[in-house]
Amino acid sequence: xxxxxxxxxxxxxxxxxxxxxxxxxxxxxxxxxxxxxxxxxxxxxxxxxxxxxxxxxxxxxxxxxxxxxxxxxxxxxxxxxxxxxxxxxxxxxxxxxxxxxxxxxxxxxxxxxxxxxxxxxxxxxxxxxxxxxxxxxxxxxxxxxxxxxxxxxxxxxxxxxxxxxxxxxxxxxxxxxxxxxxxxxxxxxxxxxxxxxxxxxxxxxxxxxxxxxxxxxxxxxxxxxxxxxxxxxxxxxxxxxxxxxxxxxxxxxxxxxxxxxxxxxxxxxxxxxxxxxxxxxxxxxxxxxxxxxxxxxxxxxxxxxxxxxxxxxxxxxxxxxxxxxxxxxxxxxxxxxxxxxxxxxxxxxxxxxxxxxxxxxxxxxxxxxxxxxxxxxxxxxxxxxxxxxxxxxxxxxxxxxxxxxxxxxxxxxxxxxxxxxxxxxxxxxxxxxxxxxxxxxxxxxxxxxxxxxxxxxxxxxxxxxxxxxxxxxxxxxxxxxxxxxxxxxx
Length: 490
Ligand code: SIN
Prior knowledge:
Structural class: alpha/beta
Radius of gyration: 23 Å
Largest sheet: 7 strands, mixed
Oligomer: single chain
Number of helices: 16
Strand content: 15-25%
Strand order of the largest sheet: 14-15-16-13-12-18-19
Bound molecules: succinic acid
């Protein structure tokens, strides 16, 4: 196994990619108001600043996206694919530094951040290959003389609003699909993690993405978000974040009838049936639940285990989780970094306290970590009230486990949530896997796996987890609209 580069080396590479400016219409620029401080959540120090852009700058970015759109859309798919392929190559060449930048602003352990950079890049390479495959259809008409042609065309300039938990992957999943389709984009990254977005944009420019095709606007949600949702020039919004904010953005987009992709909250159930391979179930739980310190929308939020195997599963899970190393992102062997902010810690504590009050037990963890700051111990809970975890995402390193007695009970409890993003099940019975997988009310199902994220996999939810898909051919459809042309043949 190759050794991790030294922390000082990595931090220097990350800082070298840090740009304390916004990218508006192809120019790096400062803001008018006082800049936004970006924190390092592991050290609780200020890492740097980005501009707080005013409305005029955001309008410039939108107008540039509208100006750049016709040429970019008219290019051959092969040319757009080549730009994407060059972008991917530059990201690969800078992957250590980009991963360090993610660790600095998000707190993710560096090896995990490197995994995110590669995951992020997989969207770019996947969509680079799709750019020359945006075929339409010929359609038979009931009228003898008519032939109908259906073209797939880019929807236009789009806006994207992205979260802090995957500072790279949530951007490329949207941007690569948009650029592949021929759309241009104005991106508002999370104010907690804007530097990765800005570094990615710099590499996109170096790769030959034309001026104006990609702006990265930093600033207050009200100022920047409001301009993006209100502009008639922006034809679509893609948002990843909470259901509450998603609802508000959808309302703001209604007057201009924008297309919407809403990747919202989840409260994923994970079911371990009595015939499951328990080691596989434990590994799947750890991989899914503790990724990004539990700060993902797809991670299992409530775990249902058949009573017959519950003790065994809990014993193995507790042993495994109690060994997960918590620490600073550049320390070797660390797998759990800090939470993003104090609010995140409060929520985790609240869920543990409410579980204890409902009769649940803490099997490992359950408290802030001795490192202090934003670090929390990886935690396993047994019992309590699963309705709390069906209603609210914990967004932290807490695995609450509940018992069930029948398949029907497990599915009923799993589906008793307004959310429906991901769901996981562990069984050796293929019939049961198919039956339960089809019955679960979620957009993304993992069978015998706690990790389902993949550029080729359609990603998105049902119910209050939103609509639209990202990644895969379905994700591309979200950036395309169909135009029909009827030819009357003499
Ligand atoms: C998310 O949690 O929002 C995304 C996770 C993923 O892409 O795997």
